[in-house]
UniProtKB/TrEMBL annotation:
Subcellular locations according to the entry: Cell outer membrane
Keyword flag Kinase: no
Identification of the protein by name: SusC
Primary localization: membrane
GO CC annotation: cell outer membrane
Lineage: superkingdom: Bacteria
Protein family per UniProt: Belongs to the TonB-dependent receptor family.
Length: 524
């Protein structure tokens, strides 16, 4: 054996000894931690998580609150359980006794149900509440936009995407094939009528999203029992913001919240441009054909002509605080939303007032709410979207010649002989077999709605002096709504180019409600 081989063998032996030394040292640093997890009442906490901090090494406590875990000697043990504050302790070989204390913020979180407000840990049934910090942000014109995608089992689908348009809401799917599957909507204790008026797709449309404090969704029978059969599709409870006294002082604050947004069509349907269309007609029918001779010289992108960059604004001013010893809140709001389809628009004005005084050292509490809303909309003819993909791109938006200005308001249209109308006034009419000018569909049809709504209610809650655990709650309210939709079609319109048309539909409704209940809750 030469010197080089002996040196190599000695080096290998040294490296092996070093590796064994560190391995033995690493193994020696492991210890077994044993302990018990209990609460403040010295009761074992079953299923508590016991984890070595910074690792995935962990275990849960058994029926007696005991655990055994192998960790590094200098490890930190993290013990956690729902409803309790997490505890961190240093690992030790001695038996450990870890006391978990209740997380008061979590347990005292209040949710609103049909029978009033209860602590979250006392609520039975399936109840889900959304607080302001969990709601969707940005420009929202309808209250349902705030909870879209935020609650398991609740599906919110926009109804067409028009400005100010409503949505179809389903809680755990539909329960009937033929009947209405809309959930019951309750605003500040007042159950609303789901049958809207013109311009109001559902009761959520009349609420300013900026005034909403919480959403609570009741999903099953135990939570919705007080509302009876009306709640067969679930219940959405909306609680609006209220005033508050700061340290018992009547301090008044004023806030402003504003948003400006811009939207446009993300993409367009791919169609032939004017040059491609001419080439296709020439190839298929020939240059001397009537089809080729009917082509124009323009290069019109009809989809570009019907869409626009839409700007929308939302402004809200609120004043809240206390008038003497009475908390109050006043707010006004203005929303103007333009749609990406030309002529579509939604405009809304809202105002709300809340007073919530209390008397007899808080034994008697009153909560009064008054909300008003005025909205107006213009609806674009959705048929223009499909027509824009079929209209001949070789012709302009505005036709050249007296025939277009006289019979079609200046817009280009495919024409027919109008003698069949038996009226000498109309010698030309539209060709019903050809697509209409999509811009004319938007501009020559004026479809508008105006709606007004007034909702008010007064809640009275009284705890009996001789038995504070017993309380009576009464709530009375009204819902007054009116809506009118008018449709004015110009005589120049492609769809009604004889004398035009005018029609309107108006709906007025009112809803009065009163309910009361007794509640007994024994304090611990």
């Amino acid at each position: 054996m030469n010197k080089k081989e002996r040196f190599s063998r000695k080096r290998s032996i040294c490296l092996l000894l070093v590796a064994l030394f560190f391995a033995a040292g690493g193994y020696a640093q492991k210890i077994t931690v044993k302990g018990t997890v209990v609460d403040e009442m010295n009761e074992p906490v079953i299923g508590a998580n016991v984890v070595e901090k910074g690792t995935i090494n962990g275990i849960i406590t058994d029926l007696d609150g005991h655990f055994t875990l192998s960790v590094d000697e200098k490890a930190v043990i993290v013990v956690s359980y729902i409803g309790y504050k997490p505890q961190e302790v240093n690992a030790t070989k001695d038996p450990m006794r870890i006391i978990l204390r209740e997380d008061s913020k979590m347990l005292e979180e209040v949710v609103v149900i049909g029978y009033g407000s209860v602590k979250k840990d006392d609520a039975t049934g399936s109840v889900t509440a959304i607080k302001p910090d969990k709601m969707n942000r940005g420009l929202t014109t309808n209250a349902q936009d705030l909870m879209a995608g935020k609650i398991a089992g609740v599906n919110v689908v926009s109804s067409g995407g028009t400005p100010g348009g409503g949505a179809t809401i389903r809680i755990r799917g539909g329960s009937s094939l033929n009947a209405n599957n809309d959930p019951l909507i309750v605003i500040d204790g007042l159950a609303m009528d789901n049958d809207g008026v013109k311009g109001l797709s559902n009761p959520l449309s009349m609420v300013n999203p900026n005034d909403i404090e919480t959403f609570t969704v009741l999903k099953d029978a135990s939570a919705t029992a007080i509302y009876g059969s009306r709640a067969s599709n679930g219940v959405i409870i909306i609680t609006t913001k209220k005033g508050a006294l700061e340290g018992g002082k009547s301090k008044v604050r004023i806030t402003y919240d504003g948003n400006v947004s811009m939207s446009n069509a993300k993409d367009k349907i791919e169609v032939m441009n004017a040059d491609e269309y001419r080439a296709r007609i020439k190839q298929q029918y020939g240059e001397s054909s009537d089809a080729y001779k009917a082509l124009g010289n323009a290069n019109t992108d009809w989809q570009k002509e019907i869409y626009r960059v839409a700007f929308s604004t939302d402004h809200n001013i609120s004043m809240y605080g206390g008038l003497g010893t009475t908390p109050f809140r006043v707010s006004i709001g203005y929303t103007n939303q333009n749609g990406i389809l030309k002529t579509s628009n939604f405009e809304r004005y809202t105002a709300s007032l809340n007073l919530s005084p209390s008397f007899f050292d808080g034994m008697l509490k009153l909560n009064g709410n008054l909300k008003g809303m005025y909205a107006q909309s213009r609806f674009a003819d959705a048929g223009a979207v499909g027509t824009a993909t079929r209209m001949d791109p070789t012709h302009p938006v505005m036709g050249e010649g007296e025939i277009y200005s006289k019979y079609f308001g200046g817009y280009f249209q495919w024409t027919n002989d109008g003698k069949a109308l038996n009226d000498p006034t109309w010698t030309v009419t539209n060709n019903s077999l050809a697509p209409a000018n999509p811009v004319s569909l938007l501009e020559l049809k004026n479809d508008r709605s105006k709606s007004k709504s007034l909702v008010g209610n007064l809640e009275v809650d009284y705890k009996f002096h001789f038995l504070p655990d017993l309380r009576i709650h009464a709530n009375g309210g009204m819902d007054l709504s009116t809506g009118k939709q008018t449709t004015d079609v110009s005589p120049y319109s492609f769809t009604n180019n004889y004398y035009g048309s005018y029609g309107f539909e108006e709906i007025d409704k009112y809803n009065l409600s009163f309910n009361t209940y007794l509640q007994y809750v024994k304090s611990a």
